[in-house]
Amino acid sequence: MAHQDPKQEIVNRLTRLLVPRSSKVPAGNLHESTQESKNKTLQFLKERSLPGRRAYIAVFENEQGKEVYFTCYVEEDAHGNWQFRGAAGDGIMGTNPGPIVERAWANLGGGGMPDHFYAGGLVADHDQNVARVRLIAKNGTVIEDEVENGMVLFLSGQRIDLPIQAELYDAAGNLIYSHKVLG
User: How far apart are CA 158 and CA 167, in angstroms?
Assistant: First the structure.
């Protein structure tokens, strides 16, 4: 069932997929942080929007008390209802994202290529002060995001062809490192 609130659509989908049947978050009880009786939470940490499309980084506390992040994507249908279209992630917050490397690294998940691109995830900083991540698609499309709380989130209305290269920059605009992220 689709909803008029894009966040509620994500809450309903992730709750169905991630929470045991005995401890589901009641539908219709969305707040910026959705809380249920066993202290499980679903929070929206970052958002990007284009007309009729939204991407979010959502964090969910799993049964072991670990925070698991997802990059979620929703689209608005012709009737104004938001429909869940995909998610990527499953990373544990506070752990070293991506491959074990001793340099800055963007660990991204996403989808919707080539015409409904979304991606997001964690940035391993390794004391290199990563301030911004730029994505460069095979077809030359470039999109950027500032690192906030160790995360980046991208949503594009332009065509994005794989593979995608990530460039990580410090606050002065110096390139720290570049690597392939998707494709």
Answer: 19
